[in-house]
Design goal:
The protein has about 130 residues and is mostly helical. The chain has one domain (about 5-60, about 65-125). About 70% of the residues lie in helices and about 0% in strands. The protein has three helices and no strands. It has helices at about 5-60, 75-100, 120-125. The longest helix is centred in the N-terminal third of the chain and has 56 residues, at about 5-60. The N and C termini lie far apart (about 60 Å). Homotetramer. Interacts with both DnaA and DnaN, acting as a bridge between these two proteins. One of its GO terms (biological process) is negative regulation of DNA replication. Belongs to the YabA family.
Length: about 130
């Protein structure tokens, strides 16, 4: 093999490695997004299960006329919905900050993430149950 053929081979290999590196970066980004969405959905399911258990425990005996017929939300239902909204707000704020490019981990909290690179500390915090 002559030197030009070897050089062409190495150049071709370098291009392929660059493409693979780009694909790996895309996969990493997609994985991070999927992990965040999965965690958000798990938390939402947990909150909905709590909400369901609260309404099951607090459901009074059926009346002849319910509050829903009068267009007024039952007080216990209103409280349970308020609790459900409050439980997810802090987590949602952290996810939003992370998506905007800031660290949410205790190691680098509030500092900008360089080049939107993922932080394992932040991801582990966001993926906790």
């Amino acid at each position: 093999m002559d030197k030009k053929a070897i050089f062409d081979s190495v150049s071709n290999l370098e291009e392929q490695i660059g493409e693979l590196y780009q694909q790996l970066g895309d996969l990493k980004t997609n994985l991070g997004e999927m992990l965040e969405e999965n965690n958000r959905l798990n938390l939402e399911n947990e909150h909905l299960r709590r909400r369901l258990s609260l309404t099951d425990e607090a459901t009074p005996e059926p009346k002849a006329e319910t509050e829903a017929e009068h267009g007024v939300m039952a007080p216990n239902r209103k409280e349970a919905m308020q609790q459900m909204i409050e439980l997810g707000e802090g987590y949602d704020n952290l996810v939003q900050l992370y998506k905007e490019g800031f660290h949410v981990c205790n190691v680098h909290f509030g500092s900008p993430r360089g080049n939107d690179e993922d932080c394992l500390f932040c991801l582990s915090l966001l993926n906790k149950k």
